[in-house]
Every structure is written in structure tokens, then in C-alpha cells.
Design brief:
Length: about 300
């Protein structure tokens, strides 16, 4: 288990690649968008520079980490020698199914196929492959190099051997793996997303403002970040996608996304990634509250 392919060079993908490479694994970072690959590598280098400045790693360790990463825009070439593939593409079912169908044909028969999905069924993903027993979920937390938790999600057919391998592998990364079963939202998002959604609903109903809601949860519940700021950090589009998966999976109205969340995503106000969500992240107005244009 030495060659690791990571599909997707976005926030999660480059964080996963960084973490494996820093721990001595040979990483193939794959993305069809070459600009995304370049941006992903730059993000990794910047994060490593921060670690050097804080004396958490040496300059030599930074260079070794970067040396361990190769980039590919061709998926088949990137995975041809992989022992483990971690898919970290957009949270879109059709896209993930397409990727796993390709992986099933392109990867060595012995490769383990993992998805970093935060809500989509591992069983459903595995069903499009010829070896569903070798498909598993590895749900890393953001930012990956810092957060310790990894949710290890068993699909219906995931073998015990594969689960043990991935649990042990996660520990070698300095992570704390937690084994869970395949139900919508797993554990982390089944609990987190309704809280975020209720916070948005509280704002939508005019109970309190953005800063007030976040302050109550930070000071009253000892949360390091308020729920609305956290939603911005995750990405409001990602929150909406996860809630839709849970709502469709459970058919329970408590998972229905708040209309305010839907409107903001439709308007392109996605949080940090777009420069504006519940807060304004533009250079001139960083961390200011967003305007009330979406509130009724």
C-alpha cells in the first residue's frame, strides 16, 4: 500500500494528497483540469510553508512531500499502478458513478477504491464496479492535514479485510479512523447538517442575526466556529447537496433544506469559495455580515 491515487485537486483532494505525501506515500494527484492541478499544488506548497514557519516540519520535509506528488490529467494513466484510489471529486452522484466505472476497468485488480463522499451511498457507488467488496468510504474532514477524524464507511459488500486495511492505513497517517455503516449522511453529517440547517432557518425566521447566532453557539456551546461561518467554510452548495441526499434518503421533512439556503446557492453565494455567503470574504470586507437581500 505505497502508491496512492487521489482524484480531484480541489480543497479535499489536495488536502488528502498532501497528507499521504507528507507521510511518505507516493501520490498521483489527478484532475482533468490542468489549472486545478496547478492550483492544488500551489495550495499544498503554501500550506507546507506555513508548517515550516511554525516549525512543525523542516524545509527538507517540505521538499520531500512535494517530491512525492506527481500530477496527471489522464485518469487511466494516473491510476494504472495504484494500490489505493481516493476519489475526492464534486459531491455529485452521476459523476462519482462514472468515475468508479472507469476505475473498475483502469485500476489493478488488487486496488482498493475509496470515496471521500460526505453523504452518497457507498453501496450504490460500489454497485457499478465488478468488485464491490473492494469499495469503501474514506470521509476526511477539512482541513485534511490538520483534522484527525476519518469516517470509514462500509458499503453493504465491503469486505472485513478491506475495512481493516483502511483502518490501519488511516492510523499510519496520524488520523483517528471511526468505522460506520452506510446510511445517508453517515454519522458526521447526519448530526451536523440538521444543526447547520436549523441555524439557517433561525436566521430566515428573523430570530437573530448572523453574528448573534454564531456567538450563541461559540460562547454557549463551546463550538470553535459558529454554524453559519462553518457552513460558509464547508460551502453552501455542499451543505445543500448533502441535505438533499439525506432528505431523499430518509423522506423526512426535518432534512429539507431551508429556502434561504436554496436561494443563496442559486444566487451563487456559496461562502468562502465564492467570496460571499453569510459573511463577506472579499478583501475589503473580510468577515463582515452579508447583506439581508435574501431574507424575507
Amino acid at each position: 500500500m505505497k502508491n496512492i491515487a487521489v482524484i480531484g485537486a480541489g480543497t479535499m483532494g489536495n488536502g488528502i494528497a498532501h497528507t499521504f505525501a507528507q507521510n511518505g506515500f507516493i501520490v498521483q494527484l489527478i484532475d482533468v483540469n490542468k489549472d486545478a492541478l496547478n492550483k492544488g499544488l500551489q495550495t499544498i506548497a503554501t500550506n507546507l510553508d506555513r508548517m515550516v514557519a511554525k516549525e512543525k516540519i523542516t524545509s527538507e520535509e517540505k521538499q520531500s512531500t512535494l517530491h512525492n506528488i506527481s500530477t496527471f490529467s489522464n485518469l487511466n494513466k494516473g491510476v494504472e499502478n495504484a494500490n489505493l484510489v481516493v476519489e475526492a471529486a464534486t459531491e455529485n452522484l452521476d459523476l462519482k458513478l462514472k468515475i468508479f466505472k472507469t476505475l473498475d476497468e483502469a485500476c489493478p485488480d488488487t486496488a482498493i477504491l475509496a470515496s471521500n463522499t460526505s453523504s452518497i451511498s457507498i453501496t450504490q457507488i460500489a454497485a457499478v464496479t465488478s468488485k464491490p467488496e473492494r469499495v469503501i468510504g474514506m470521509h476526511f474532514m477539512n482541513p485534511v492535514p490538520i483534522m484527525q477524524l476519518v469516517e470509514i464507511i462500509n458499503g453493504y459488500n465491503t469486505s472485513k479485510e478491506v475495512t481493516k486495511t483502511i483502518m490501519d492505513l488511516s492510523k499510519t497517517l496520524g488520523k483517528v479512523p471511526v468505522e460506520v455503516n452506510d446510511y445517508p449522511g453517515f454519522v458526521a453529517n447526519r448530526i451536523l447538517m440538521p444543526m447547520l440547517n436549523e441555524s439557517i432557518e433561525t436566521l430566515y425566521n428573523g430570530v437573530a442575526g448572523v453574528e448573534e447566532i454564531d456567538t450563541v453557539m461559540k460562547l454557549g456551546m463551546a463550538h470553535p466556529m459558529g454554524p453559519l461561518q462553518l457552513a460558509d467554510f464547508i460551502g453552501l452548495d455542499v451543505c445543500l447537496s448533502i441535505l438533499n441526499v439525506m432528505y431523499n434518503g430518509f423522506k423526512n421533512p426535518k432534512y429539507a433544506p431551508c429556502p434561504l439556503l436554496v436561494n443563496m446557492v442559486n444566487a451563487g453565494k456559496l461562502g468562502v469559495k465564492s467570496g460571499e455567503g453569510f459573511y463577506d470574504y472579499s478583501e475589503s470586507k473580510k468577515a463582515e455580515k452579508v447583506s439581508k437581500q435574501f431574507l424575507r
